[in-house]
Design a protein that fits this description.
The chain is an alpha/beta fold. Helix content is 55%, strand content 7%. The chain is built from twelve helices and four strands. The protein has a four-stranded mixed β-sheet. Helix 1 packs across helix 5, helix 4 packs across helix 5 and helix 6 crosses helix 9. It is globular and about 45 Å long.
């Protein structure tokens, strides 16, 4: 496929204020995934809405999920959420709020002040990660996947695992972006009682967890995070096992629901390219 899903996210979300030239989509692969771009209620979100449509973001994500055999249809949509920053799964539907996308870019601008990452990667990583995180909830629900532990932790693990399957460059950029968003969240707010009682891990925990999974999969690729002290020495020795544990769970529980031929076609695509400047 001439277009690349991650490149589309980079171009469309990191610079949505400028107009984009639409690209003719390749022949879609329809499965059990439906998509919808909801009309934004806040005029400030219209550039996001238009950019996503012109870059066929949800169409590409639908194709990305095409190898997955689902027993019931899954809808993925973007819409306004009444000013609430949120992304969630409910009733066979993944919803990404325009408010959430705008918030990602706001936080990304702070992340880039450290010069550790570009604005494009600081946006694309969290956006792709949250899409996969919410789709993970859908997979658990629709396929009735058994889970030990908290479902939010399992969704984080599955999202990180998938990000690591499509080449080192894509993995490096998306994992780094997602992890540094968690770190920025931790910097900006001290946790309180409600945070400790949340179904989600604390941002600091999610930051370390995603880096540990990444390091367990590709220690050379993510060695610099260890050198910077982001992964404590007592955790490093567990990272390879943590990654292999997730890989085993995927192969055992989700693998039987994946079409192997379509999976190879999807993995064979170019998933990351340079910004085309448009």
């Amino acid at each position: 496929m001439a277009r690349a899903i991650l490149a589309i996210f980079i171009v469309s979300l990191a610079a949505w204020a400028s107009p984009a030239v639409g690209q003719t989509p390749a022949a879609p692969v329809f499965g059990h995934v439906r998509i919808s771009y909801g009309e934004p209620k806040d005029p400030a979100h219209r550039p996001i809405y238009e950019r996503l449509q012109k870059r066929y973001v949800l169409e590409d994500f639908r194709d990305f999920l095409s190898p997955l055999r689902l027993p019931q249809p899954l809808t993925i949509k973007t819409e306004s959420c009444g000013g609430v920053v949120n992304a969630y799964y409910s009733n066979q539907t993944v919803t990404i709020c325009y408010e959430y996308v705008a918030w990602i870019r706001e936080v990304a601008q702070k992340v880039t002040l450290s010069n550790e990452i570009t604005l494009e990667d600081a946006v694309v990583g969290p956006f792709v990660d949250v899409l996969l995180h919410e789709v993970a909830h859908a997979i658990f629900d629709l396929l009735k996947i058994p889970i030990f532990g908290r479902e939010e932790d399992a969704a984080d693990q599955l999202a990180a695992f998938i990000l690591l399957q499509f080449g080192n460059e894509a993995a490096r950029r998306t994992i780094s972006g997602a992890a540094l968003l968690f770190r920025q969240m931790a910097i900006e707010r001290e946790p309180g009682t409600a945070d400790f009682a949340s179904v989600h891990g604390l941002p600091d925990q999610r930051f370390v967890n995603v880096l540990c999974i990444a390091y367990g999969a590709e220690p050379k690729l993510f060695a610099d995070f260890v050198k910077q002290g982001f992964l404590p020495p007592h955790r490093i020795g567990h990272c390879r096992w943590e990654y292999l544990q997730i890989a085993h769970a995927f192969k055992t529980l989700i693998g039987p629901h994946v079409d192997p031929l379509l999976q190879e076609r999807v993995k064979g695509r170019q998933w990351l390219r340079a910004d085309d400047g448009k």
